[in-house]
Amino acid sequence: xxxxxxxxxxxxxxxxxxxxxxxxxxxxxxxxxxxxxxxxxxxxxxxxxxxxxxxxxxxxxxxxxxxxxxxxxxxxxxxxxxxxxxxxxxxxxxxxxxxxxxxxxxxxxxxxxxxxxxxxxxxxxxxxxxxxxxxxxxxxxxxxxxxxxxxxxxxxxxxxxxxxxxxxxxxxxxxxxxxxxxxxxxxxxxxxxxxxxxxxxxxxxxxxxxxxxxxxxxxxxxxxxxxxxxxxxxxxxxxxxxxxxxxxxxxxxxxxxxxxxxxxxxxxxxxxxxxxxxxxxxxxxxxxxxxxxxxxxxxxxxxxxxxxxxxxxxxxxxxxxxxxxxxxxxxxxxxxxxxxxxxxxxxxxxxxxxxxxxxxxxxxxxxxxxxxxxxxxxxxxxxxxxxxxxxxxx
Length: 394
What we know:
- Helix 5 runs antiparallel to helix 6.
- This protein has six helices and 21 strands.
- It has three domains: about 80 residues, Immunoglobulins (Immunoglobulin-like, Sandwich), CATH 2.60.40; about 110 residues, Rossmann fold (3-Layer(aba) Sandwich); about 150 residues, no CATH class.
- The radius of gyration is 29 Å and the shape is globular.
- The C terminus is likely disordered.
- By secondary structure, the chain is an alpha+beta fold.
């Protein structure tokens, strides 16, 4: 029997290279496609600086497990979800663009790695009213800016309606809205939002009127041949009820009171030392010791936290006596805080679970004798004021 001839060297090299490339592709292929994220803003990408809007994320992963989400912008927002392997999950989170108009960053960290993307908001012209036309013919006007919005671009949370000063919606578009959008629109009407329906079915109009705030003054309906612009101008002329805003000031009145008390005690200690003691060294030691003791007591005291609530708002006050990192757990079903700007290093922990949907925790850095006031609206106007539970975590 003749021995088998070895393959030519060129064939052997080609086979080895092919096997090496195949192994490399098998190793690198799944890792490159393990985690992906797509981001889209409501209102067809339009948003107002330092106002809340809704960010929709579509997340896909080849591996299941917990996924951490972090949204940038004027207010950082963090959340966590569970995702199944090979499935795509859609989640909606609050986002707030900054005044600079920079893109909102999205960072996703999961069991298979990380992914990131950025979405750039489009700002309507400043100083003009903005009217969103949902499946309705936009009207050109010098009095307001018109935004053409598809039904799917309407947000699914009432707190995300700050982009528009008024809403014009065709009756036929209501059938293209899902249950969450209809609920958010109802809550917007309940919160005195300006809505002009065009040929809205009587049953839907009656439901809105029964729920409308401000005695229904901000809700109107027009027929196809009616003067839509005139009715819209009348709605825009109506004032909106004042909303409480959040404040984060470095030196609030209560902080000033504490500072005054500190110096009064210092003066008392110095005066007592001057009258009672005769030695110069002792005169210096007594006020210095009092200063150290008062400062130590001030620095070791935790931040003071208080809640108050009425039918529509929950208010949170944090009085920080010293520089510290404070995390406060919030009641269920709260929307994002009403605020023009987040305080230094303030972030929200957002829950997506049905029983704890909404903002779950606020994390911020306090300063010496600082006060931070926040006002939260309920994520749905149908949610009543719940039992208040708050606490500071280390």
